[in-house]
Amino acid sequence: MSDPENEDRHPLPRLPDPTLSQLLVSGVAIAVAVILLGAVAARIAQQVQLLQWWVPLVFIGGIAVADFASGVVHWGADTWGRANLPVIGPRLLVPFRVHHLNPDDFLRRRFLDTNGDVAAVTIPALVVLMVIPLDSAWAHVVAVGGFGCCALGGMTNQIHQWAHMPSPPAVARALQKAGVVLRPSEHAGHHRGPYDTQYCITTGWCNRPLEALRFFQRLENTVSRLLGAVPRADERSLAAGAHRRPRPVAQDG
């Protein structure tokens, strides 16, 4: 039986609510990213023969790159750095580490707060896709693959949030069941134990091959040997003040 007095003394960590200015910046970033994504799609449709055999393969490859990139960023944010680092500390590192101890807190985040940072990251890539000359076969491959990467990669935080929802929107559930986006059961593995597996959170496609290769574990060991860094040090200090285990993420419905 839980001890109410102990719970009051050691509440689960929570992220602060975003300010109005932060929501405004996030909204602008999302709007710009959506406009650029539409412009890139129109440019590709005008200059690339979309019925060629390689187009769907490259598009899917771009999505896989986005999934792999989400894993690398997730691994880095989970494992290294201090919470008080400028900019990336409060915006990237702390949210991931609080999320492990209190995953339900993620569900409080509104659409703008959830998606603004990732949208901002995609903007430079979309600008590049708008200005590169599409005058060669390789440029067409980069454009199609880059579009797939940005289209799904820009939704990573929203997809991650869907994976934690007990009852996500019907479209999200359909995409999860089809394996197009991260499934709750796939992501549940990351929230068991020391949070050092299954980092990819866009589609989850890369998790099994990377786990089979022990890719992130080997990379982590290499960084620790070379730099003497202690993985997940800040998360351990946060955990010292948390008295309850986080609830598991929802299972596939």
Whole-number count of domains: 1
Shape designation: globular
Strand content: under 5%
Radius of gyration: 19 Å
Can you count the beta strands?
0
The assigned structural class equals mainly alpha
- SSE order, one letter for each helix or strand: HHHHHHHHHHHH
Count of helical regions: 12
User: How would you sum up the major sheet?
Assistant: none
The percent range for helix content is 55-70%
* Quaternary structure: single chain
Unreliable sequence segments: 1-8, 240-249
Mean pLDDT across all amino acids: 88
Distance between the termini: 30 Å
Note the main attributes of this structure.
253 residues; mainly alpha; 12 helices
How would you describe the overall organization of this protein?
The structure is a single chain. By secondary structure, the chain is mostly helical. It has one domain. Helices cover 64% and strands 0% of the residues. It is built from twelve helices and no strands. The protein has helices at residues 4-9, 20-47, 54-79, 88-101, 111-131, 137-153, 156-164, 170-178, 184-188, 207-212, 215-227, 233-239. Helix 2 (20-47) packs parallel to helix 5 (111-131), helix 3 (54-79) packs across helix 6 (137-153) and helix 4 crosses helix 12. It is globular. Residues 1-8 and 240-249 have low confidence and may be disordered.
